[in-house]
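Handoff note, outgoing to incoming analyst
You'll be picking up this chain. Sequence as last confirmed:
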Amino acid sequence: MNGALMRASSRFAIAAALGLVVGVGSTRAADLGGNCCADLEERIAELEATTARKGNRKMSLTITGQVHRSVVWWDDGHSSGTYYGVDNTNASSRFIFTGNAKVTPKVTMGFEIMIEIEAGGTSSKLSQFDEDGKVGTQINGTLAGSFNAHNVDAYFGDARHAAWYIEHADLGRLTVGRYTMAGVQSTIDLTGHLFLGASSSFILVNGGFFIRGPQGQYYATTWGNIGDPASASSGRTELVRYDSPTYHGFIYSAAVAEAGDYWGTMLRYANEFSGIRIAGALGYERITDIATPAAGSVGPTNAAFTGPRPDITAWGIALSAMHVPTGLFIQGHYNAVDFGDIAPGAASGYWGQGTVGPKKDVDHWFIQGGITKNWFGYGNTTLYGEYGQANDWGADQGAGRNFAGTNGLTTVNGVTDTQLTIWGFGVAQNFDAAATAVYAGYRHMEADITCTGAGGVGVCTGAAGAAPTKLRTEDIDVITMGARVLF
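Most recent structure output, in case you need it:
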């Protein structure tokens, strides 16, 4: 009886408190006549009907995420500028809904929905002529529409993950939905915050910037055209994925996506021995997916359906090590992609492949080193340096790749070799009490482009079909400063 009385009293107290806070039915709540209990039940029902809550009490719900905004300064050899408050694509702002429920002591079912915030400018889409980082090229007085005009709100976001899973403690996890492919991995960051300003991809901060020539001309080629497509690692797509349980530090994963024409597999490892922390990954992907044709062009005569299929294979290895007592670390990766000898028109669009083809085989490597230590008591401070190269991502076989100039851009035809070299350094600081990291990173980028002018008059030679020559380019310097707040 005492338990029932306590529950009734607690329920009464909660209802009264909620009534005071929200101001619902204050006159009737004060009437404690003979029908008080019925009145309380009615008030509670009203509050429950108007309060945001989970759909059920069986599946848990956790909301997490991050806000990550930056200030980006750049100098392209002929001009410079600063863009304020942009979203940093190295680790975009996002929020995540996750939940799970126990079916048996060893079987769990759950879900994940990850929404990436696309409001306003993002660092990978900025250029010398588009501080909004969304829409438009503004060159030589020819203006395109600006996405992010003052006091005009941007659209909300897009789904990175939307998937459910079932997991057995001894057998592993099966995931179904939109999720990250099992396959090629880039650098594993043991510091946990280095990639805020220094991602293993070279193009997520300034990939949209145009490469400049010695006379100040803007080539119809961006740094993203000759760099890795977002670090050339496993992409997000609709799939079925399996992840094994951890066995002596190893986890095996495999996935098949779309219509079965995209699949991948990987083996990951993490462990610590005598104060040395080690993490590594080995991955492989295979893509034979044909690009979806334009609306209205389906049918047996469409080359996208009847022509040769692409045959792309990619593999990569990543290895990281840290001496925990001193905080000294080194980490990096190597990725390579073989596009096969496919005919023009069979290009899939994966891994930066265009629709003209055939594309040259490519690779990408990257290394970082430094020290991470909690010197000041707020959280770890990381000092680092980095170096890397991306080879032939902007080139095609044979006559090479053409970049047609429009809107004042200078055409670059017959690109047969490209190399993007980066080096940089920086600092990142955790503030553990606020779940926040601040950082500042510098990167210097150099382009080495060989072209022939084949397929038209090109800037390399001034005549079609001439001998290959080097395209004269300017370097670019970028400083990225910002903070990521976890919630």
